[in-house]
Each structure stands twice: as structure tokens, then as C-alpha cells.
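Thread title: Can someone regenerate the structure for this chain?

I was given the following input by a collaborator and told the matching C-alpha cells would be attached. They weren't. Posting the sequence so someone can regenerate them.
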Amino acid sequence: MWCSKAESLPSNLLGMGTASARAIRELTPAFVDAAMALAEGGLGQQVSKLLLDDEYGATMEPLIVALKLKRGDSPIVAKEVLEVAFDIAKVGAEPKTPARR
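Best answer:
Regenerated them for you:
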């Protein structure tokens, strides 16, 4: 079952201190896809907890916000973070921005 496997994952999923920036850039989209797939399977809360508990979890703030959006929450975050989170979550319409004059 997904839950037992997700709970057995190390809490330091993002603690890749020796990994190169390129490797992290390559792995991030796969990690985001996996996290959202787990959320679709009902494990969004557990994924959020893993991220929030990890010392590097804050670097994944758009993913954390996307998981909250999937749960129906309305987090108050920076506009840029919310835009990326909407793109990740692919839920609803993005917030409207005022037209430039």
C-alpha cells in the first residue's frame, strides 16, 4: 500500500547536499510529479508533512502550496509562489492580475 511505503521514506528526501545543481534541476520535476501523484492517491497530507519537516523543504514552497490547493485550501502566499503552485496543481483558474495600462 502507498501509505506504508510513503511513511517509510527517509525524512531527508531533499537533503542532497553533495548533489550538483544540475542534478537537482533534473530531479525536481520528477519529484514534483511523484508528490502530486501521491496526493492524487490521498497522501497529500503525508507528502506535505515530509516537506515541512525537512530542513530543505522550504525550497519546495510552490509544491507545498500546490498540495494545499489540491486539498481545497486557500493559502496566503506571495503571488509568484501562488502562480507556480497553480501550474503544479492544475486546479481552478489562476488568480486574476490587474491589466497594465
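The CA atoms of residues 79 and 95 lie 9 Å apart.
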